[in-house]
Every structure is written in C-alpha cells, then in structure tokens.
Amino acid sequence: MTAGKPGVKRKQGQLPLPSRKKTKTVHLTTDDLPWKTISRPKEADLGDGFDGLLELEEVDDVQVVYEETEGGKVVKFKVAGEKSEEDERGAAPSEDMTVLDEESPEGEGSETVPDLPEESFDSESKMPNWHPFSLHPRLFRALHSEQFLTPTPIQAAALPLALKGRDVVGVAETGSGKTLAYGLPILHYLLMQATHTAGKTAQSRRELRALILAPTRELALQVSSHLNTCLNHLAAESSSASGDNKAQETDQGSSVPADAETSEGQGRKKGKVKQKRQSGDVTAGPKVPPLVSVVAIVGGMSAQKQRRLLSRGVDVLVATPGRLWDIIQEDDELANQIEKLRFLVLDEADRMIEAGHFAEMENILRLTLRQAEDDEVEPVPDMGLGAAEREDAEDSKQGVKEGEMQTFVFSATLSKDLQRNLKKRARPTKRRNDKPASTLDDLLMRLDFRDPSPAVIDLSPEGGVVATLQESKIECLSSDKDAYLYYFLLRYPGRTLVFLSAIDGIRRLLPLMDLLGLPAFPLHSQLEQRQRLKNLDRFKSTPHGVLLATDVAARGLDIPAVDHVVHYQAPRTADAYVHRNGRTARAMRRGFSLLMCAPDERKIVRALMRSLGRQDEIPEMPMELHMLDKLKARTQLARQIDSAQHKVRKENHDRNWLKEAAEAMEIELDSDFASASEGEGEGAPSKRVRKATNAKTAAMKAELKQLLAQPLVARGVSTRYITSGSTSIADDMLAGEYHETMVGLKKVEAGSDLVPVKKRKKSKVKAEVEEWNGFSSEN
Ligand SMILES: Nc1ncnc2c1ncn2[C@@H]1O[C@H](COP(=O)(O)OP(=O)(O)OP(=O)(O)O)[C@@H](O)[C@H]1O
Q1: Cβ 493 under 6 angstroms from ligand 1
Q2: Which stretches does UniProt call biased (Polar residues) (predicted)?
Q3: Where along the chain do its domains lie?
Q4: CATH architecture of 469-617
C-alpha cells in the first residue's frame, strides 16, 4: 500500500489514525516522514471561525509496510530513495521510519534511565553570580548558554529558600523571572534524583513529582516551554552522551508551543541538532526517554492525546485547572499521584480566581491536603527562651520535612493583607465538605503549606510600576478613542498590545484597523486555541504589529519586545492595570503604557490609582491636534465602510441561511420566500438597492484610499520648501529624526516627549537596576 501517492494531505499536528486495535501503532513518529508544507493562497484564509487547520502538508513516495513481530504488529514507512531493509540486511530498522507498538515494552512501562557521564561545570569562574546556589551542573550550563548570567532579584531571593526546602510565596514585578525562581529548584531536585537513578531500569511509569497550575492556556504552554528550554540543553548533552538524537528532533517551532505533545523535554534545538547529525557528530542509537519530562495540559487541544501522554508518565505537569480537573475525574492514578506530589506551584494565583477556575482549582487543591489526623498544629511552647534561642527554635520549625510537598505561590500582585495572613497562618484541616471560598485569600488560606511558616518574599515595586516603564494617559471621549489610538499607532510605530474589556470591542476594532492598513490580530477566549497561538506568533513576528486582546493576555505572557501597551478601556482593577502593563518593560527593557480614559472612566481610574497608593498624576500624552482632525476623518470613513460591509454581509448571511435551511429540510421555498431570499420580496432589499449599496461602499473605499495616501503634515510645516515654515523639516531629515508618516514631527520613542508631572521617587529603584546588570537594557 502506498500512502500519499502522490500528495496525501493532512492537517498539521493530526495524523492518520488507523484502528488501534488492528495495527496497534504509535503515531508520533509519523512526524519523522518528510512532510512538505503546502502554501495556501492568502485568499484561502477562512478566518477566525476555522476549526484548527493551520497548514496543509503532504508527503510523497512513502510506502507503508505492516510487519508481524513478537511485540505485535509494527508499521514501517519506507521512503523512496531510502535503502530498503533487505539492502540493510542484518541492521536494525531505521528508528526514524518505524512506528512502535504503543503497548510494546518501549511504549510505556519500563524505561531505562540513561547512563550519565560524570559531570561538572566550572560555575565558580563562568557563572560567579549563580555559583552560590550550587545548582545541578546541567542547569548551570543551560543558564550559561541562555546568557542568563545573573539571577534576577526574585530568583536570588527565592532560590536559597526553595532549595532549603521552604515553602515560598513570591511577589515580584512583571517580567522579573518568576518562572525560573520556582522552576529551577524543581528541575534541580528532579535532576539530582535522575542522576542518582542513572543506568537503572525503572519498572513503572514515572511518578508525577511537580504540578504547576497556571490561569491561562498560553501561560501554561509558555511555562512548559521555558522549563523545556533548560532541559533542551540537557537533551543535547545527554544525546551526545547516550546516543539519543531522537528527543531533540521534535521541535516546538515557536516560543509558545503549538501543541502540548511536543513539549516533552524537547524544544528549540531542531536546526542545530539536525546539522550536527548530518556532520556525524551525533551517533544514531536507541530512543532514550528524557531525563526529566515537562508536559503542558491545557484546554482547547486534544484531550485524548494529553491523556495518552499522561499515561506514559511525566515528571512535571503544567496545567490549567479546567482541563486538568476533567482528566483527573477519569484518571484515578493521576489523582493518587497528585496526592503525593513533591512540588505544587500556583503561578498567577490571583488571576486563577478571576478566570472562573475556582471550583476546579479548589477540587485539585483538595487532593493535595494532608489527612485530617495529622492536621493538629503543634503549638510552639514558650519555654522562657532568649531571643537568639527563640530564633533557633523558629529556624528548626522552618521548611518541609524530607519528602514532603513544597508549595510555591508566585504572582506580581498579592495583597499585603494576604501576605501578612499567610505568615501567621495555621494549617487547614482536610474537610471534604468545606463550602467553596470566594476570594483569593480564602483559596490561599486553604493551601496546605507543609512549611509551618512559609517564606514570603515581596519585591513588588511601589505603586505597582516597573522602573523601566513609562506611563501616560489620554483623556478623550469614548467616540474619539479610535482616532486617538490610530494617532498613537502612527506616531509611535512599534509592537503594540491593545487591551479592551470586551470581545465585541475587538470585533469592531479589527476591521477598522484592517481598512486603515494596520497589521492587527485578535486574541480572546472565543477564538479556537490554535488560532490564538497562531495570532500570537503573527504578532511576535510583526515588528509594528497590533494585538487586540482581552485580559486573557494580561497575565504572564512573555512576548519578547512588546514596545507599548494601550488600555483602550480602563482596567476594572488595580491588579489588571499592573498585569496589563507588565506585558511591556519586561526583563529590564524599556516599555510604555497609554491609558485611554473617557469621562465615565475617570472614577475607576482614580479608584485604581488610590488602591495602588499613587499620588502623582499620570502624565498626559502630547497630541498634534491638527493631525488628529485628519485622522478622525479617516477613522469615521473607515467605520462607515465597515458598517456598510457588515450590513451587506448580514443580508447575504440571512439569505443563505434561509436557502440552506430549506434545502436541509427538503422544503421548496414558495415564490414569496424565494424572491425574499433573492432580495426581491417585500422588506428585502432589491437587487437595485444592493447594487447601489455596493457602489456606495466602493466609492467610500476609494475615498479612504485617497485619504490614506495624503501626507500628514504638522501645522506650521512647509512641504514645498523644507527649510522654511515655522518648523524646518530639513534639520530633522539631516539628523535622521524624520518621521516617515507624520511630516514635521520628530521620530521619537513613545514617552520621550511627555510633559513631566510631579516626579515620582524612583531613585531607590534606579539604584537597584544599576546594581543588577543581568539584562542589557536594549536587547
Ligand atoms: N536570570 C535571568 N537573566 C536574564 N533573563 C532572564 C533571567 N530569568 C528569566 N529571564 C527572562 O526574563 C523574561 C521574563 O521572565 P518570566 O516570564 O519568568 O517573568 P515573570 O516574572 O513570570 O513575569 P509575569 O509576572 O508577567 O508572569 C523571560 O523572557 C525570561 O527568559
């Protein structure tokens, strides 16, 4: 039988699924076939509603051979041009081309832990700032090759405590490296364990050791990708040590992996490894399981695939509560394993409540509680000790006992009250019938910290503002926000993330941006997951791209080089303001945020500034009002075109719907209905009216095209004589500060032309920034 002759097409990430009972195959390695992407013409883009088809691929000249073996039926793919097995008589079948029986011993069950070479890394001289943490040499190496030469402040504060077995509640500004602050201690522990069991054969599936809960799918995928990046360095090394070249070949392809299945200890090494392999550096050999596996389980992706992955066993599971709870309900073993976790992490814990995951979260957290019998909190007897002795006694109470679960809770925003409560907290009892709590405080107070006094690290900046962030605001009418946004996007080109409070707003703004020629992409919860990831990737690769997002993108997303955040609508809470702003000015880079405030939003803005403890006014963004008027004309026209197009689309849709419904029910439309569906009945627009509407829309489009082609010239600028006028553009041209779309304005970064209001006390934060040189400011 020949598959794909010529050009079998498949959906990317989906594999042909022959009946498992008959062939008993694992489908993963069909990915090794030489699939070729078929480029799809732009006009074939089916839009947002399209159900998950990202790309088409085809494969040619592949022969499928079924072979009976002792382990069951094995499927092999023979690629034309490859040597046949007979040619290679005696040699083991090429692993790349063999799909193993899922139920064969290699599929699951026993695993051989790879034999590891003696390792060392000269951290003292190469990584002096990391050296004191005595991490596993492989982690040092990974950090070194990522060029993370200095721990960030939250990492420096959390690591010693976490490595000592303490429970840690960490609060630090957005983009400050919290993922590795909890991730490194977990990976360190697991690697140390793996090193100890190296060379032995593990009899059963891997036990789940760490569970990381994240509020959004994107964040969960990003965290697993981040941890896998550290592990990739391991894979590359362990492959050269153990001959495993398989693990690195499945590439996630992007910083946010397209599918959870691909994130098992693998990642961005594809190109390099393939090159190595060609040059013969890596010896082919048997498939070796990853030393430490990290898998993401999120909604919106195949639950079946995710169950299959879990059934093979993973070390670290990164999950959103909703999907995880669905799976736990059908998987008792997973539930048992969660009861015996070694690490539990809540990332962006406060958002988990907002995201409506409360019930699932609580159910999962219940599994991690200790049994009621040992819940008695031992009172600390006051035996008349002195201060030093009391401190020693306190010390000995700290940390979890050997083998017990460590809990890490991290966020950029946790209320001070909550942090105080956590410090004083007593252990909760395992009461199955507890009423669900309704706030974050309740939820966290329900966490069963094994550490009698969890360490609380609060490095959140004063007022919630990161030192490298420049804030600004515009006060304007709601109806003018489109024009102001348009002005901002033209005036300060850069990668801009625009937050709106409702999906409807995104749906309205998106066609407008399109008509105005701005590259905008939507991101909200009603988009299919693949489309969400695809839009994120497009945004990342478009330097002047605009992402129109709801708060689904406010937390944790680490999109490199977001230059600006715009709050098109004021956020409802202070936390949302902090987290939205946190998508820019990350990792010590500069960033800019613009808050658009309509009169009816002033009250909210005042309240949120008060709750952030801010006294200073946010500076106003300067506007060239003369140009703004021109831009208003453009946006108004674009809005008219959009509503005309929308009307036509709706009429077409209604007409088609009527026709399709009649066809489906095998009813013949009577003449009245039929003429209505043709737009000729009573109340329906006649063909003539439709024609006239189309002509009007076309005329408006032509007018807009003309407006867009006109240069935007600042007041007082002469375009005829560039050295005259009250503002000479010749000087700017010579200095290279010439703004390409707004003639007469200097090309400057957003924020550099703000009129300063009262100065905030930033000197302390600035000193810290200068002291910590982990990031270069402009990369
Ligand atoms: N020690 C380090 N040196 C340099 N870069 C680092 C270091 N640690 C982390 N980073 C990088 O900093 C960026 C931000 O890290 P991370 O996403 O963990 O921040 P965060 O504090 O979790 O942010 P948020 O609160 O928004 O979720 C990432 O791109 C990460 O790779």
Answers
A1: no
A2: 239-255
A3: 123-195+206-235+292-368, 469-617, 624-664+687-709, 711-754
A4: 3-Layer(aba) Sandwich (3.40)
